[in-house]
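Ticket opened by: R.M.
Priority: normal
Category: complex prediction / small molecule

The reporter submitted a protein together with zinc ion and asked that the result be attached to this ticket for the collaborator who will pick it up next week. Submitted input follows.
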Amino acid sequence: MSEEKDNVPDSKEPFMFFDTSHLRTDEIFLRLERTSEADPEKRKAPSYHFNICRVSDGLEIGMIDFRVGNTQETFFDGNIGYFLFPSQRGNHYSGKACLLLFNLARMHNMNYLYITCSPDNYASRRTCEWAGGKLEAIIELPTDADMYWRGERQKCLYFFNLVPDKVTAGEKPFTYRQVGISSFFLKGDICWTPSPHTLETVENGFLLCSDGKSGGVFREIPETHAHLPVISHSRMLIIPGLTDLHVHAPQFAMRALGMDMELLEWLNKNAFPEEAKYAEIEYAKKAYGHFVRHVKRGPNTRLCVFSTLHVPGTLLLMDLLEESGLVSLVGKVNMDRNCPDYLREGDGAAATMEWLETFYKCRGEGRYKNTSPIITPRFIPSCTDELLKKLAEIQKKHALPLQSHLSENPEEIKWVKELWPNSKNYANAYEMAGLLEGPTVMAHCVWSDESEMDILAEKGVYVVHCPQSNMNLSSGIAPVRRFLERGIPVGLGSDVAGGAHTSIFRAISDAIQVSKLRRDGKALTLEEAFYMGSAGGGAFFAKAVGGTEAGAAGSFEPGWDFDAVVIDDSEFASPVRRNLRERLERVVYLSDDRHVKAKYVRGISIL
Ligand SMILES: [Zn+2]
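Result attached by the on-call engineer:
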């Protein structure tokens, strides 16, 4: 998350009011009545108070105030408050006065501001919309707010982006933290899976965010927390953020191409030539920008990502992900054999150290809060024994997690056996190289047998089930039911571009569908698949700390990171009233990014 400093007046500098005589149009002008200084004790911002006057005859037609910066006062009252005499309404005078104040706000280096109004004040709501505001939320006021005692209960919060080039969708700031409110409730229809067998649902309930962590779900606001604001998403579904535990960011630009090939052919013809392009930083900037913006709009809040072997491109991807507010583990890929010459590393270990040293230096400067490195040998065939062993040393030295591919395809497994003839199986080859000692995620595991599962269970390896990719590349269907029976942790992955869709909703529905085709046990239930896509994969982040400040996500049980996604499923209404489980199932199968209305990561609104 980028630190938004511009919007708050620098407390070290004395605040300066500007000359306002230029605030006029052909129709109206703003006449300054008075200014008032900040009052830090009452959390009041410095403010201007104007009369709105008509140019033609100088007549006073209303009033407008402008509060500079963000304080608790401006959060509930907004940065701008206005009143127009009733006889003057209908000419957009209030909206035009707001536009004039936006210029003044820019002079104060504000990149955005808020205007609030009561939900039943339709005139004011129309003004906000006319002036370009976006309704961000309807907040229920806490009982200790001044306005609560004046009889107000709710406020519409309109967001105005004053510098669209600077405050892009990816960098939208969030004021709760800035005004010292890091705890609040979300109100709506809440669903989550505390275990693979249980779906908890609370209709019209309250989900508590307490300093970026979940404080649990309540049917009524507890007396002890009545002072907290409530952001209302009434009649919408609120679910935990989903985790894409295996995705190749550089393949996003070529997703849904070559879907009629099998793995090794597809790698050589499609994936490798595309990944080579990321040596060019300009190409990487464009393509990774598309990827990050796309993921941000969808229901995933966390990802475990492969980049390419290029160090500058990998750091760029980490920067973009950090700015987006998503939480991620990002791996610079290693490969130094059995790959095209144009993608072969000379000294993969040295390049990995160069990447990590730059990362740690930047993190020391405060750049990365949500983004961490993960050691990423592409897979056994593409790394020499020497490189694998050096990576194991680096991993151990820096206490890093590791991600790779395992038992995706029978040909690949045979190949690994030839390369590591003394290994008992594919997982054992990683084990012999010393690479299963830390937190580990292994994608696919389609052909893992019981002896391989022994290793996965013993080492606590997270399996990433990527059903869409496994279909597209004819890999097969992973024995997920057996993993669950053996207590092996399982998350879901898009494996873009083996899979074409980034949304983990798609992976959830695919996982259920392919499990039916195995015909060797009970198919996966909605609860099990949803669990894997949320808490199952999100739990890896508690394990794979690697220096990130983030913890586990994907559940609303108290203490988990507050990652929540708000889905408007009103489009799927039916004549029959649906319960929350049914609504969730339909969202899994039918929704797309357009239905994602709000998204919170570690308690911060990022959409
Ligand atoms: Zn993959």
